[in-house]
Amino acid sequence: MKSGNPRNQVRRAKNKGITLSELIILEQEEQLKREQGYKWCNSCKEWSKDFGKAYSYCKQCYRDRSNSKYDLEKQRTHLLKKKYGITPEKYDEMLSEQDYKCYICHKHEDKLDRSLAVDHCHKTGKVRGLLCGNCNRFLGQINDDIDTAERLLQYLQIHNI
Fold this sequence. Notes:
Layout: H1 6-16, H2 20-35, E1 39-40, E2 47-48, H3 59-69, H4 72-84, H5 88-97, E3 117-120, E4 127-131, H6 133-141, H7 146-159
Antiparallel strand pairs: 1-2, 3-4
């Protein structure tokens, strides 16, 4: 409970538009909430135990505020440029050239749960094409090794029943 000068209590009560006795009860309730581990959320104006360590907002309000500031198109542009050195327009051009399908398995992007991934050479950084997640992971699993890919093809040809 806030203590101190009685004039300060009178001033706080007046600012809140309540009587001094109501202020004392309110401050006692607030102190009890704090002792029970609750914090006041400055966004939803409710007591909550669901707080991050350094936030003045409960976790739900913090998520809501973060999501409202999240610009998906801006993030996409930044990622494409930073990670692959291409613009969203270049990505869209590649997508159109590939007829909106994975370069390897030809699965249409409408049949996928995610957009096509930008495949690139990890040694040179050069963008090679757009792949579905499975094909992109497969290339990563064989370390982009042509000999392994050829042996895989040979294996399938021999054992294809």
